[in-house]
Amino acid sequence: MAVALDDLDRKILSELQKDAEQSLDEIARRVGSSKTPVWNRIRKMKDMGVIARTTAILDPEALGLEACFFVLIRTSEHEADWQRKFLKALKERPEVMEAHRLAGDIDYILKVRVKNARAYDQFYQALISEVRIYNVTALLSMEEIKSTTTLPL
């Protein structure tokens, strides 16, 4: 369920998405308010779950994780036990950056970040040793054109 936000809330969120390390004074100045109301609104948005967490965004290439694969998974298994094992396997793998269940011909799509193709193969072999998968297609991203954590407000 969407939370009702006013223009000031959206301006504050926009500033936090740009740089959550800004001081309250800086955010207040940029949004045209004062420090206390900005702090109160941030606290309220945290309490309402609008701000889920504050984290650092790391550069994967700087850390040697140069290969990004999009993995398309089709399964013939739809039982609760299979799904539980599959979801557990995904959650335990730090290489899996995102996982989505899809409508259509493909059941799941994963975003997997690894060092290279060999590391992807190790990930793949480990995954299929834990759960039966009908079909897997891995697509290597040649170039990241846009990647953002910024939501449109």
Largest sheet: 4 strands, antiparallel
Mean of all residue-level pLDDT scores? 96
The top level CATH class name of the largest domain: Alpha Beta
Gyration radius, rounded: 20 Å
Quote the CATH topology of the largest domain: Alpha-Beta Plaits
Count of individual beta strands? 4
Architecture of the largest domain in CATH? 2-Layer Sandwich
The CATH homologous superfamily name of the largest domain equals Lrp/AsnC effector binding domain/regulation of amino acid metabolism (RAM) domain
The class by helix and strand makeup works out as alpha+beta
Beta-strand share of residues:
15-25%
- As a percent range, the share of helical residues equals 25-40%
Number of helices: 5
Number of domains: 2
Pfam family, one: HTH_24
Organism: Pseudogemmobacter lacusdianii
Keywords: DNA-binding, Transcription, Transcription regulation
Protein name: Lrp/AsnC family transcriptional regulator
What does it look like?
- The structure is a single chain.
- The protein is an alpha+beta fold.
- It has two domains: 7-47, Arc Repressor Mutant, subunit A (Orthogonal Bundle), CATH 1.10.10; 67-140, Lrp/AsnC effector binding domain/regulation of amino acid metabolism (RAM) domain (Alpha-Beta Plaits), CATH 3.30.70.
- Helices cover 39% and strands 18% of the residues.
- The protein has five helices and four strands.
- The protein has helices at residues 7-18, 24-31, 35-47, 80-91, 117-130, and strands spanning 67-74, 96-101, 108-114, 135-140.
- Strands 2-3-1-4 form a four-stranded antiparallel beta sheet.
- Helix 1 packs across helix 2 (24-31) and helix 2 (24-31) crosses helix 3.
- The longest helix has 14 residues, at 117-130.
- It is elongated and about 55 Å long.
